[in-house]
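Quick log. Single chain, no ligands specified.
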Amino acid sequence: MTRDTNLLKNDRFAALAGIELVKVEPGYALAKMEIEEKHLNALNIVQGGATFTLADFAFAAASNAHGQAAVGINASISYFQAPKGKVLFAEATELHASRRLASYNVDVRDENDELIARFTGTVYKKKEKLNFNKSG
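-> predicted structure:
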């Protein structure tokens, strides 16, 4: 079941970066970003922060899709190669979850399925519940 939340739709930084949520369900999310001039650094390759932002947004979507507010408490990324294509995809998958913590892996790939970066993160699950809205 694909769901979206007002919380994610209101992520102004992701919107500014041009990130689109393709699919989200509890513990899983797929996000995409079409590479534009604004994403490039002085070497004319995608700036690392743009890749991190894409991965972080997929991480947030997957972790909050359970309906419980989750906030990142740790995140790291390893970059393997510069993307050669025009689109990046970030696929977040839950690795482990307990009552208050959950760990995620996010693979960032280009449209040729080349692994560009791997992000790992941990969230703290707050007591607040989120209000899901199917109609947006």
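The chain has one domain: 6-129.
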